[in-house]
Amino acid sequence: MPDITQLPTVELDGPLTMERVAAVARLGAKVRFSEAAEKRLTSARQYVDVLAAGTVPTYGVSTGFGALATRHIPPESRAALQRSLIRSHAAGTGPAVEPEVVRAMMLLRLRTLATGHTGVRPETAVTLAALINAGITPIVHEYGSLGCSGDLAPLAAVALALMGEGEVTDSSGAVVPAAIALRANGIEPVTLAEKEGLALTNGTDGMLGMLVLALADLHRLLDIADLTAAMSVEALLGTDRVFAEDLQALRPHPGQAHSARRILAALAGSEIVASHRGPDCNRVQDAYSLRCAPQVHGAARDTVSHAATVAERELASAIDNPVVLADGRLESNGNFHGAPIGYVLDFLAIPVADVASMSERRTDRMLDVARSHGLPAFLAADPGVDSGHMIAQYTQAGIVSELKRLAAPASVDSIPSSAMQEDHVSMGWSAARKLRKAVEGLASVLAVEYLTAARALDFRAPLRPAPATAAALALLRTKVDGPGPDRHLAPEIAAATELVNSGELLRVIAPYLTP
Q: Which residues are the active-site residues?
């Protein structure tokens, strides 16, 4: 974990990059408003104050919400209206979601506030920034969002903490009442004014935050998948010729070309590959799980690229309803609908499942004495007495089966709500939650392939693997012993998974691979 004092402060002025979202969500980077953002907040609030003082009912300012929007609320009841909105909408249930998701959601809502299109008071936005900087993270529950009008229940839980209500985790990770955490950090709870309840809850920030974090994870995991595929090709005495640039250029998908370059670079200099290049080798073609790795991994990369484009557009958006426009108009709109995000969250779950499925097939080949070209059955030290990695493949298979179920789309399942006022919803939050589980599963599947391929490469001695795969093998051997009698396997899978997730595995192989 880096020293947070060395992280750059994220300035809220204009679109955020995905890297900055991850820095705040995962590393604890702090945030601040630019002078321009402060001016936008002040200017937009002046428009709202004028509407609040007027006699014409204005949605979100002087009326009820959703299906209750027809009721005009007198000025003396509007503070109670905002308080009631947040309390009633903070209706989540189930386990608490991960703190990094909540921090991403807080940051993204704050970024929208900074656009000046929501009409909140500057002091409300400043208080939300203070919570982020103090490491105060509201407890947000798993269930409650339909992804339209935005992530209402999760964002209401954040707004509740701004009011000094509900529970939060403090900077030490302890769960405490919000009022105590705010007081300990010298933060005054907010009494919400007109429009602010909607402005704090009417966004797609939860699903977008999870999309951004998933994209960061998938960039790393697809690089790992290229490496583990190369290790398996090497261990199974496969050929590297199919990854040649001129062959890949016949089908010019950018992701495919990228993965093929990385696999080819990972195999460069391998004594194992060189050992069966000659005319005596009677194997004509490798199995699809080896030969077609760039095609599958590359298609996944291109899907990630498309999803990143959607995320970047959302990071440049101002999601609220109603919104304050530059000329002072307050206009209703449908930008809070989560369909653009929900679709790509669902889309990403498909290649995640497929990349994992291909990884599991390569693992299984290394364990099958009929297909592994001379490796011992199940890579066991004494097959029959020992079971080797037999059940590690079962673990992979169980995860892959789950990933296939998680690939079923959530965004096609709209359930009407709010007395049919909100008669079509995105379910984007649900798509995001299942993608997070799928990404976690992919990491575990790749870790088992890494563990298994490394053991297979040990059995190919005295032939030496390529420098890149040798570096990956050497790193694993700092945590997990080489072949021998059966040991407790779960801790070894956990150690391999940690090397995959921490970025350490990518760090050691980076000098050998093309970017």
A: 59
